[in-house]
Design goal:
The mean pLDDT is about 85. The protein starts with a helix and ends with a helix. The longest helix has 22 residues. The protein has one domain. The chain is mostly helical. The chain is built from 4 helices and no strands. Helix 2 crosses helix 3. It comes from Actinacidiphila yanglinensis.
Length: about 60
């Protein structure tokens, strides 16, 4: 995992969906750094899917509304 991805995940904690995901990982027993790496991996997967499908990001809370 690159330092940029980790920094991006740390910055994403201001987003409610990302914060919820991070908190879920911590309640599953992961340490802060491990949860942050999980979030970074998730964001990388989303970015890859966006590039593959040529779509824009749409948060789940916006998509549900």
């Amino acid at each position: 995992m690159t330092p940029e991805a980790t920094l991006s995940a740390f910055a994403a904690l201001a987003d409610p969906d990302s914060r919820t995901y991070n908190d879920k990982k911590i309640t599953q027993g992961k340490h802060h750094a491990q949860a942050l790496l999980c979030l970074a991996r998730r964001r990388t997967d989303i970015l890859f899917a966006m590039l593959r499908d040529e779509t824009f990001y749409e948060s789940r809370s916006v998509a549900a509304a």
